[in-house]
Specification:
- The complex is a heterodimer of chains A (151) and B (107).
- Chain A is built from three helices and nine strands; from the N terminus they run αααβββββββββ.
- Chain A has 151 residues and is α+β, with helices and mostly antiparallel strands.
- Chain A folds into two domains: 30 residues, no CATH class; 114 residues, SoxY domain (Immunoglobulin-like).
- Chain A is globular, with a radius of gyration of 20 Å.
- With 107 residues, chain B is mainly beta.
- Chain B has one domain: Immunoglobulins (Immunoglobulin-like, Sandwich), CATH 2.60.40.10.
- Helix content of chain B is 0%, strand content 52%.
- Chain B has no helices and nine strands.
- In chain B, the strands form three sheets. Chain B has a four-stranded antiparallel β-sheet with strand order 5-4-7-8, with no helix packed on it. In chain B, strands 1-3-6 form a three-stranded antiparallel β-sheet, with no helix packed on it. A two-stranded parallel sheet of chain B has the order 2-9.
- The relative contact order of chain B is 0.32.
- Classes of the chains: A alpha+beta (151), B mainly beta (107).
- At the A-B interface, β6 and β7 of A face β3, β5 and β6 of B.
Amino acid sequence: MIDRPSSPRRRVLLAAAALPLLPIEALAEDEPEVAAFKAFVAGRRVGIGRLKLDIPRIADNGNVVPVKIQMTAPFAAGAEVRSIHLFSEKNPVAQMAVFHFPVAVSRVEIESRVRLAGSQRVAALATLADGSLHSATADIVVTVSACLDGS
Amino acid sequence: MADARIQVPAQVRRGEAFEVKVIIRHAMETGYRLTDDGKPIPRNVIREVTCRYNKVEVFRAETSSGISANPLITFYVMARDSGELVFDWIDDTGVRGTERAPVSVAG
C-alpha cells in the first residue's frame, strides 16, 4: 500500500512533477513584453489563437529572417482583416511593418523577411473591421544580429 | 533589368484568393551602418509599397529598416476580372518605382 494514486502524498508528488511544465505553457499565453505592441494595444482586449506567427526558433543570420503570418478563416461579413502589424522587441524601429488590406480577402497569409537585432520576442497583431484585435508571438534566438554598428 | 519581380499564377479562378509574390531590388539601407572611414551611411529604405488590381488598391505595406534588403512580400488577392496588378513604391530619398503583372481570370 505504498503510494496509492489516491493518497494525498501521491497527489502532491504528481502536482510537483507537473509543475516544471507550467511556466512553458504560461509563457506561450502571455501578453508579449514587446513595448511597441503594448503601446499600440493600449489595454484593449486581444484574442489569441486565430493569428499565427511562424518564424524560425533559431536564425543564424539576423539580417534575413523569414516570417509568415496567417489568420485563420473564415471571416464573417464586417469582421475582415484590415491590417497586420509586426513588432520587434529589440529593433531600433519597433514596428517593422504594417500590412493593409483595403479590400477584404478570404485568405490572409503574409510572408516576408525581416531584420532582427538580436534574440528577442516578435509580435504580430491583426486588426479586424469589427474593431477586434488578434495577436501571436514567437521567440527567436539570433546568433548573428542584424548589423547595427557598422561592424 | 526590372527593379522588381512579381509572381502571379498563370491563371486564377474568379472569386478565389490567389497568391501574389513581389521582390523589389533595394538595399534597404538601415542608417545604422558606417562607411570604412567611419561616416554614417544615411538611411534609405522603402517606406511604402502599394498594389493595385485594375486600379483598385488591394494591398499596402508600410515598411521600415526592419525589412530585409531586397524586400519580399507574399500575400493574397481575390480574383475578380482579368487585368493587371500594378505595384508602386517609394523610398526615403523620394525615388519611386513601379512594376506590373498581368492577371488572367478564368470562370
